[in-house]
Specification:
alpha+beta; Arc Repressor Mutant, subunit A; 2 strands; about 35% helix; about 10% strand
Length: about 90
């Protein structure tokens, strides 16, 4: 068992870190494909993925849409924190 990375007090094994890297590249790949890439068994990948999800290291799987193909020319996300509400309560 080789431990390579310590993140916020969590020790990750080489294979766990490699799995996170592979899922970052493409989270849609099957456990079987990932197992071939990592040179481990499919049940090992499934067990590690479930463990990392349970521990909160993997929080979600998401997509990155092609906004241009969806018809958007400019995309912007703005976060704002207001000190006081714009309207008094009750109005």
């Amino acid at each position: 068992m080789q431990l390579t990375q310590k993140l916020l007090g969590i020790l990750l094994k080489d294979v766990e870190l490699k799995l996170v890297a592979e899922l970052t590249k493409n989270s849609r790949r099957s456990d079987r494909e990932l197992a071939k890439r990592l040179h481990v068994s499919q049940p090992t990948v499934t067990r590690i993925r479930n463990k990392l999800e349970k521990e909160g290291i993997i929080r979600e799987f998401t997509i990155i849409p092609d906004f241009v193909r969806l018809g958007y020319e400019i995309a912007s996300i703005t976060f704002a924190k207001m000190k006081d509400p714009p309207f008094p309560k009750g109005n």
